[in-house]
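Reviewers of the previous submission asked for a worked example of the structure-prediction workflow described in the proposal, so we include one complete record here. The input consisted solely of the amino acid sequence. No template or homolog information was supplied to the procedure at any stage.
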Amino acid sequence: MGKTKKVGSTGRFGTRYGATIRKRVRKVEETLRIAHKCPSCESVKVKRASIGIWECSFCGYRFTGGSWAPETPGGKIAQRTAKRLSGPEV
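From that input alone, the workflow returned the following structure tokens.
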């Protein structure tokens, strides 16, 4: 089976499962496979090592994150809330 420009990696499913589900799967897979920015060294070398475990191939920093992306929307909200509740730094 070939991969086409329009359907991308979900071309392997053919006409099965419906267009909306295939579009959702394509978006998740594209987000998963791109290189992300390292929170430690700021280089764009972070890849997923396992589900929820991310590793920078430049500095070797390993950290936890989401299953499909190293930083999730819920995680961003939690960080902002924790920063706000910790008060002003002296």
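DSSP finds two helices and three strands in the chain. We consider this example representative of the routine output the project will generate in years two and three.
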